[in-house]
Amino acid sequence: MPSDIAVVIVNYGTADMAIAAVDSVLNRTPDGLAVEVHLVDNASPNGDAAILRQTAARWGDAVTLHLESTNHGFGRGNNVVLQKLAQRADRPSKVYLLNPDARLASNAVAELAAFLDSHPKAAVVGSAILHEGSLAPAACAFRFPGAISEFVTAVNFGPLTRMFARHLVAYPAELPLQEVDWVSGASMMARLDALIEANFFDPDFFLYYEEVDLMHRLKRRGWQVWHLPQAKVVHVAGAATGVTRLTDERPPLPAYWYESWRMYFEKQHGRSGARRAAQARLAGTALGDLLARLRGRPTHTPQNFAADFRRLVLGPLRQPPVRDARA
Hints:
This protein is an alpha/beta fold. The protein has helices spanning about 15-25, 50-60, 75-85, 110-120, 145-155, 160-165, 190-195, 210-220, 255-295, 305-315; strands spanning about 5-10, 35-40, 65-70, 95-100, 100-105, 120-130, 135-140, 140, 180, 180-185, 185-190, 225-235. Helix content is about 40%, strand content about 20%. This is Glycosyltransferase.
């Protein structure tokens, strides 16, 4: 029987949580939907593939394992499955992307699918995301970033943040149903035909900004992106990447964060727009660090941020531009 929805989970080093994510989908409240689950392992270390292969015996045909020999990152990891689905004559109409460190807290599969069925112009709809443990809502719906938002975010100063609240990237964590620019890739459902039209995730991105770029391209084609708060998942923030940490002192960001930042702004705003946003981010960082020191507070700037940003963002932006034929 053809599937209505394909669920795609991309794992790297979080086998136990990925298993819990799959189980939450398979054990959801009965809804009459035909759902197939695809679990991609991105060449995880520490024997994840063997653990997943062993667990797959109890899942049977309900789950397809894709054991990759390369760490593709998030977008390319999802593309492994999306491109195979697109080639099938009996392809599902919808795909639900779920992080390995997330699990259903409601029947988000059915709720998100029903929303897409009733909103034909919507290409993507995202769920609410709750923090593991506290179940406090997390920001999961966003505006597209720009020079103003980069400056204000980097300064991280209350009065300025309130003054430019409408330019902030993140919407409030508790957000009613509404159309937004983009939603978190940790829990999002999309029409497969819309993803095919947009040519899936841009493979240039390894991790970070790939879903922002995808939804920017979808919106440019006339599609809508929505946030549906009734659908809920529980998420362990940063478990798979280790980048998100709830501490005052933030470690250096990985090189791929800077590369993704630069590629997103250059692809969506051009070379000159990317330079303006980069200068705004650096200026905001300098001002924010100064204000924090004057107030005797710790800065929230990652270690070595300014130097790494100049080297990995501004340096390449001074080079001749790379042509990108993507729409």
